[in-house]
């Protein structure tokens, strides 16, 4: 039987998300091996969003995590994490929500990103009013231009300011270079290394000031195998725990296996050469062009030619052999937003589903 085939597939509704537990476990082990130790990992949970997957990482010794939302930070704390970095600059009501989360889980270190003095002042005042300290990382823009402070003549002054505030604890730098995604590893590594030169100069300037040596959290999954070669850098891969078609084809030096699939069924054969499945935009991430949505493992000679909210339309060669009700197993091109489409996931163990995990982190709010 093919590895992805579920023996009780007739009991599973569609479209649905499948998590292959043994493969998740193996991907976690491979991730730790690349990093060299669990200590160097701030694994990103935005990909999986499930407390049970966080617990699997904790069981293998990972205690530090990164996330994208306060809800993801909360489910990570619920699972037992000790250090959680929210990789956003929190403004407005989110500052108060972070304060409430800090009070709810006093044994967990929650940190967020800062790239401006104005936001730092807001954190310092709000946390101080609650008798708390805001844990932060200075967000550095080294080329992605999505967030962070440029590595210019003003960034050291911001670092000094953050270091001097009574209600802020500056842990270090956050440097995300997710824009570098060359397929060839050596080309990707060279671009990443070039982009890190100014970061090194900034670290030297911090040391020359006599300021505390910062932690440096760098990169995501594409940069993982490059930053892992920097012994003092912390890494924050995330997609590799579940893996997907997009990174699987691009990052060929990374040894991870598909551990999350979408199960869908043929629901119609509207005309010769065309079949329709119950996999629309609500079932698989649709931010990429239609030829980069899903790759079916048990179907050949097909083309996804159309999608709407609840339907996916395929042009197929072997139309006569396909029956209404047939089950298809597909690898999403981008697994992170695909997981976010589901409230729950079927957990596959020994090619059988007996339990369901809640994708709790897809919610915008858990309790605070």
From TrEMBL:
<dbReference type="InterPro" id="IPR001608">
    <property type="entry name" value="Ala_racemase_N"/>
</dbReference>
<dbReference type="InterPro" id="IPR051466">
    <property type="entry name" value="D-amino_acid_metab_enzyme"/>
</dbReference>
<comment type="similarity">
    <text>Belongs to the DSD1 family.</text>
</comment>
<feature type="domain" description="D-serine dehydratase-like">
    <location>
        <begin position="259"/>
        <end position="349"/>
    </location>
</feature>
<dbReference type="InterPro" id="IPR029066">
    <property type="entry name" value="PLP-binding_barrel"/>
</dbReference>
<dbReference type="InterPro" id="IPR042208">
    <property type="entry name" value="D-ser_dehydrat-like_sf"/>
</dbReference>
<keyword id="KW-0456">Lyase</keyword>
<protein>
    <submittedName>
        <fullName>D-TA family PLP-dependent enzyme</fullName>
    </submittedName>
</protein>
<dbReference type="Pfam" id="PF01168">
    <property type="entry name" value="Ala_racemase_N"/>
</dbReference>
<dbReference type="Pfam" id="PF14031">
    <property type="entry name" value="D-ser_dehydrat"/>
</dbReference>
<dbReference type="InterPro" id="IPR026956">
    <property type="entry name" value="D-ser_dehydrat-like_dom"/>
</dbReference>
